[in-house]
Design the sequence.
């Protein structure tokens, strides 16, 4: 489904190139639950950004399905981005001015989903994450774990095929983290491709594949 | 989708109430100011342009050369109009109007003075004034008829029908009311409330065939399809062809342009009131712009905070154009809110604004077009103010935006925000110093020694009854203890009624034809007017029987005529030889903004149309007036005692200037307020953003004073640049403006130093509260939360 070939990413400094990623070769199949691990600065987030089409300044080729991202037009790329990817962040990044309901609704609005359909999708998600009673609260009124659940609900509302999560449990205590990971596992079971970057080894156990990064290179790649 | 946009816009407004209030009220004040000016501009642009035949109605204007300069004026002799329609087939209609002093109307016991004119039937064909009863056109065909406006009819006849009733004019002629028209609208330059028939003047033998007496204005309507340039080509030799005055050339000028473009230089229209209108148009745009800048600055200042939202929305699939739409929806929402504020302000300020401009405008909110224009106006402002922030914020890249490292790195280039603040304050500096200079000039002219003592001095028109009892009235007035001096004069002391370039005197170069003004007096003018006699004596017909042919001249006349020893010189005017008996210090009767004019005060050979009465200083003026009124009632029965104060009439000459000065002062005040609101908002924001830096500095031992300076300097630097930009611009424009006055003050640096200081002070006061607040933070608290 996703294929990275010889991906290099560097910053040009005055005397030398500092490589953030070097020679990344990676193939991800549909339905995999992939965990990226490694110390700070190893390139996890950078790789995730490239995978999620948030960063286009790199060298090498990126195939999504049959298509080379590089040869896509801006419009194509953005529609791919819109239809195939969902994003989850360490800091949740909910819109503070919107309620739980409205936050989940946002991607649906941009996808021009009809009003009745929106209602049923959101109702289903709220139900699934046990947040029906909280739908009119603002993010600041929720605990971290609940905010992250909203973040996940928002990410999957548009039914993306790939879910990208950057340290999704970084700001949570272990009980909450566990809950989030169980949600991921369930999504994985339903067939969603999940790529997460994390520090915590225990999180990797929920996944199907673990990649260790060090200094911009893939150190190890193992099935779990 | 839009619901979502407006929802988040509304919540944003609620969350940052301070900024939103600054935005809404700043923009609201700016809008209110610009709406008021637009209403006024719209009014000025409509003056005499709404007549049905507006496009082909013209006023006759004439050029003649004097002393190498072309003078343009619009007075014509009585036979002008009939000759005009006779000789040119293109002319469909002509009309003359007279512009005399108000005439006394009497019905039974009621009598009062009204602005009136003698005119031709054509007047009512050319100008579409609404008719209530009768037919003004046919009324003007007959000598014995009068057309009244509604309010005059009501004043004279109360609620009873005025049609067919008789009105006595100046106690001499009885006229029948043949038509009643609506009061002339506010947007016309004709001041008349009463119309007499030109036929009446003809019947009295006042019209004649003399081309030398330019006493009326002439209007002409060309047939449809006639071209003005073609007509003027043929028309320019009209006077020369029909009279001995071959140095005069004629042209028609559109009535629609009369109000705005009737300033002529070298025989060409060079603008006029339109310049004032343009100036205020620019000022209103500037005020609005300043308010818009606040909006832009405060929005971009908050962009840090909103970058996260932009990032999320982009990741959720928002395209850039969607985000632009969202931000524009937000700015439009603010614009709508501001507009509501503006409407309230406009409604509240409307009566006051009317007083300020000296007009009686209708509140336009009752008219549908106002609302249509309003919608466009709000949309345009919302979009213009919102577009820069919208384009800027929608361009953020999500990966970077979400890291919220935006703008944290300090760029050393010039930031747009700073440019805008500099622009705002440059405008403030320009406005403050301009107002200062306008006021300076006003005071300078107001304090000008006009060579007359204006206080305790009144004048009253001379009616037929007064004329018949001239000496007796004078004697009885003089017998009153409160009256110091009485003079009959040709014109009020505040007005020049006549001038001539045909006077002759000994030693005059025949080609030298300066314009010399005429005045007239019977006796004691020096004492009555408070002039200063330099040589000779005053005219006094009661002591010197020959004084009807004596003249009193001012120093300027002496200089122009080049008299070594003025007393005893002979000046020839209008066929009479006048002997100079006295010289007075220069005095000014017309515009105090202009050069001193040469004035010749002629003995009672001239008509004496006014009586001036000087009351003793320091006495009870109202008692004196009551006593004078009793005397007037005796000799001028059944006529009102309608006197005017010379000082008030003099003050009236400053009205237009005063109005301009007041308007500009107010708009300057608004500009200052709005700019300061913006600056306050920015200072609040910057103080907030630099909290951490300030805390760290404080921990390192910085004093509060040094921190206040640190935050303030960021702004004082900008204001200083504004001052440096504003001064030369003001200098350039205001020295131009001052040059339009013959009598003017000079530009001095003091104005700019004071303006600079004042602007800086205002800016510092605005910023310092926030700077002090920021400096007083408890670093422990701030640093902990990071």
Sequence:
């Amino acid at each position: 489904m996703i294929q990275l070939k010889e991906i290099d990413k560097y910053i040009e400094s005055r005397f030398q190139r500092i490589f953030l990623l070097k020679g990344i070769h990676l193939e991800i199949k549909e339905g995999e639950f992939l965990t990226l691990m490694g110390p700070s600065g190893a390139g996890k987030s950078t790789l995730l950004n490239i995978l999620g089409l948030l960063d286009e300044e790199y060298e090498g080729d990126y195939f999504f399905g049959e298509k080379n991202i590089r040869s896509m037009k801006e419009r194509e790329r953005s529609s791919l981005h819109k239809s195939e990817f969902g994003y989850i962040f360490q800091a949740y990044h909910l819109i503070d001015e919107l309620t739980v309901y409205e936050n989940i609704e946002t991607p649906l609005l941009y996808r021009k989903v009809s009003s009745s359909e929106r209602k049923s999708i959101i109702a289903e998600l709220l139900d699934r994450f046990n947040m029906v009673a909280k739908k009119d609260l603002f993010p600041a009124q929720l605990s971290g774990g609940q905010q992250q659940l909203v973040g996940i609900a928002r990410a999957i509302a548009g039914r993306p095929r790939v879910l990208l999560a950057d340290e999704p449990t970084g700001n949570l205590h272990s009980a909450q983290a566990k809950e989030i990971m169980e949600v991921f596992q369930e999504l994985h079971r339903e067939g969603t491709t999940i790529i997460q970057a994390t520090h915590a080894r225990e999180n990797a156990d929920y996944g199907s594949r673990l990649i260790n990064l060090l200094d911009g290179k893939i150190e190890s790649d193992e099935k779990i | 989708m839009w619901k979502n946009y407006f929802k988040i816009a509304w919540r944003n407004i609620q969350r940052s109430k301070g900024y939103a209030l600054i935005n809404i009220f700043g923009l609201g004040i700016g809008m209110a100011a610009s709406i008021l000016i637009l209403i006024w501009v719209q009014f000025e642009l409509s003056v005499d342009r709404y007549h049905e035949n507006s496009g082909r109605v013209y006023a006759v204007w004439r050029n003649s050369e004097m002393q190498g300069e072309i003078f343009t004026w619009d007075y014509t002799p009585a036979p002008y109009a009939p000759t005009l329609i006779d000789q040119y087939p293109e002319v469909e209609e002509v009309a003359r109007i007279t512009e005399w002093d108000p005439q006394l109307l009497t019905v039974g016991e009621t009598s009062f003075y009204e602005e009136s004119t003698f005119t031709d039937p054509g007047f009512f064909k050319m100008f579409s004034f609404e008719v209530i009863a009768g037919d003004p056109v046919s009324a003007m065909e007959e000598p014995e008829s009068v057309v009244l406006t509604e309010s005059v009819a009501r004043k004279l006849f109360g609620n009873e029908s005025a049609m067919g009733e008789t009105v006595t004019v100046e106690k001499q002629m009885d006229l029948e009311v043949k038509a009643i028209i609506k009061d002339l609208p506010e947007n016309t330059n004709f001041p008349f409330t009463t119309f007499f028939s030109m036929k009446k003047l003809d019947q009295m033998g006042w019209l004649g065939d003399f081309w030398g007496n330019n006493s009326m204005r002439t209007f002409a309507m060309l047939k449809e399809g006639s071209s003005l340039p073609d007509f003027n080509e043929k028309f320019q030799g009209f006077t020369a062809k029909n009279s001995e005055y071959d140095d005069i050339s004629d042209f028609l000028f559109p009535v629609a342009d009369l109000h705005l473009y009737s300033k002529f230089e070298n025989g060409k229209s060079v603008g006029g009131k339109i310049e004032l209108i343009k100036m205020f148009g620019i000022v209103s745009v500037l005020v609005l712009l300043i308010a818009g800048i606040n909006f832009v600055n405060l929005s971009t200042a908050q962009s840090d905070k909103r970058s996260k939202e932009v990032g999320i929305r982009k990741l959720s699939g928002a395209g850039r154009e969607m985000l632009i739409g969202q931000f524009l929806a937000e700015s439009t929402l603010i614009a709508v809110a501001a507009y509501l504020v503006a409407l309230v302000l406009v409604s509240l300020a409307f009566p006051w604004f009317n007083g300020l401009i000296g007009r009686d405008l209708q509140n336009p909110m009752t008219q549908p077009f106002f609302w249509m224009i309003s919608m466009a106006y709000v949309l345009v402002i919302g979009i213009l103010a919102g577009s820069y922030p919208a384009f800027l914020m929608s361009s953020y890249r999500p990966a970077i935006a979400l890291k919220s490292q935006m703008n944290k790195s300090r760029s050393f280039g010039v930031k747009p925000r700073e440019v805008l603040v500099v622009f705002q304050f440059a405008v403030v500096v320009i406005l403050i110093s301009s107002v200062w200079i306008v006021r300076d000039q006003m005071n300078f002219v107001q304090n000008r020694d006009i060579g007359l003592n204006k206080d305790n001095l009144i004048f009253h028109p001379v009616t037929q009854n007064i004329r018949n009892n001239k000496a007796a009235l004078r004697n009885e007035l003089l017998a009153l203890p409160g009256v110091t001096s009485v003079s009959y004069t040709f014109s009020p002391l505040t007005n020049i009624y006549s001038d001539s370039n045909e006077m002759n005197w000994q030693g005059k170069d025949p080609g030298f034809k300066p314009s010399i003004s005429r005045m007239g007096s019977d006796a004691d003018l020096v004492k009555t007017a408070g002039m200063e006699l330099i040589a000779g004596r005053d005219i006094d017909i009661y002591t010197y029987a020959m004084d009807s042919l004596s003249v009193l001249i001012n120093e300027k006349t002496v200089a122009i005529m080049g008299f070594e020893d003025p007393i005893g010189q002979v000046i020839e005017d209008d066929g009479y030889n006048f002997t100079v008996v006295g010289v007075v210090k220069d005095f000014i009767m017309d515009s105090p903004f202009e050069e001193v004019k040469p004035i010749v005060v002629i003995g009672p050979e001239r008509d004496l149309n006014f009586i001036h009465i000087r009351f003793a200083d320091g006495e009870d003026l109202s008692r004196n007036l009551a006593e004078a009124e009793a005397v007037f009632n005796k000799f001028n029965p059944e006529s009102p005692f309608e006197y005017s104060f010379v000082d008030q009439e003099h003050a009236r000459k400053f009205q237009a200037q005063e109005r301009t000065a007041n308007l500009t002062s107010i708009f300057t005040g608004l500009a200052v307020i709005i700019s300061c609101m913006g600056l306050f908002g920015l200072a609040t924001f910057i103080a907030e953003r630099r909290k951490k830096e300030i805390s760290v500095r404080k921990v390192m031992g910085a004093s509060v004073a040094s921190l206040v300076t640190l935050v303030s300097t960021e702004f004082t630097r900008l204001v200083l640049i504004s001052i440096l930009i504003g001064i030369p611009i003001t200098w350039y424009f205001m020295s131009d403006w001052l040059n339009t006055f013959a009598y003017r003050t000079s530009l001095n640096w003091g104005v700019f130093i004071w303006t600079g200081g004042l602007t800086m002070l205002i800016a510092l006061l605005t910023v310092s509260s926030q700077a002090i607040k920021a400096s007083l933070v408890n670093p422990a608290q701030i640093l902990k939360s990071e």
Observations:
- Residues 75-261 of chain B form one domain.
- The longest strand of chain B covers residues 57-66.
